[in-house]
Amino acid sequence: MGITLRNYKLLSDFDRVNELLRHNFTKYQQNGNIEQPFWEYAHTHPCFNHKLTHRFGIWEENGEIIAVACYEMDLGECLLITKNGYEHMKPSLIEYAEKELSKEVENQRSLDIWVFDYEIQLKETLLQKGYKKEYSAPITVFKYENGFQERELPEGFSIISLEDENDFRKINDVLWKGFDHGDEPDDDLDCRRLMQSGPNFRKDLTTIIKAPNGEYACFAGMWMDGVNDYAYLEPLATDPRYRRMGLATIALTEAMKKTKKLGATYCFGGIREFYHDIGFETVCHREKWSKTW
Fold first, then answer.
1. In sequence order, what are the residues at sequence separation of 6 or more whose Cβ sits closer than 8 angstroms to the Cβ of residue 166?
2. pLDDT one-digit tens code per residue, 91-148
3. 171 inside domain
4. For a designed S-S bond to 26, which of 31, 62, 138, 252 qualifies (C-beta 3.0 to 4.6 A apart)?
5. Which Pfam families match (predicted)?
6. What domain range includes position 72?
7. How far apart are CA 96 and CA 178, in angstroms?
């Protein structure tokens, strides 16, 4: 039958792409694909544009999904996903993305494409197509074989999981303030419920540091791939009033220990210096290549 192209069907294709990502992943993200939890977390994020997911491109061969062109949150950006051995298709995915996933403002189109620093041939293709590298960020991992940093929990604070307590208002407060949105959180608690709606969301892995007054001082969301041997942190936030107390290190370490018992050997982290300070290592870089026309 050959390779066919169609649009993404949110309700029926979501988990099929999950499986593509799980079974076409190389340790430390060395084959150009995003992590499965990255895909799922995006779908449950309040900023994710569900209304335009039909613009995603799905390539199939004999009924199997072999490639996906999609955005993380909204039009104007593109992620390129391929089955191992089908990386040569990415130029075709770029052509599709320019038509379907680009953003138009005042009769001008733009597109940001995310690639990895080791994808030399793909970056040459982007150069030929008029793209320029605009941004680079490290992909960091904590290798469990190196051992965990042990920090003492401050007096009066306690460690809980969402199985122990799941107060959406307190979650909204710590994430709102922890990501520096201001001192007065909004009342959109449904967005916090949405973020727990993913089929692989784990209440038991999500770790919270509770302050003596009952507030959530630090929140560490944690995911498992389910097939590969890694954990995925998202999100991690500390209320500014409780920073510089070691709470993020304690919450993250506790969550990683839980995933180690489930078979994970390393965890993906973030880009801030905090991660390197507690033992995360850079394994590659994620680059944003941009074009306007």
1. 196, 203
2. 999 999 999 999 999 999 999 999 999 999 999 999 999 999 999 999 999 999 999 9
3. yes
4. 31
5. Acetyltransf_1 (PF00583)
6. 3-138+286-292
7. 38
Domain harbouring 217, CATH code = 3.40.630.30
- Which residues, in sequence order, are CB contacts of 240 under 8 Å at separation 6+? 177, 178, 180
pLDDT for 1 equals: 67
Q: CB under 8 Å to 253, separation ≥6 — which residues? A: 148, 149, 150, 151, 278
**Within a domain: residue 145?**
no
Question: In angstroms, rounded to a whole number, what is the distance separating the alpha carbons of residues 74 and 105?
Answer: 14
The per-residue pLDDT for range 223-258, each reduced to its tens digit, is: 999 899 999 999 999 999 999 999 999 999 999 999
List Cα–Cα distances, 127 to 76, 86, 133, 290, in angstroms: 18, 21, 9, 10
Nearest to 16 by CA among 58, 51, 69: 58
Query: 132 and 155, same structural domain?
Result: no
d(C-alpha 59, C-alpha 158), whole Å: 48
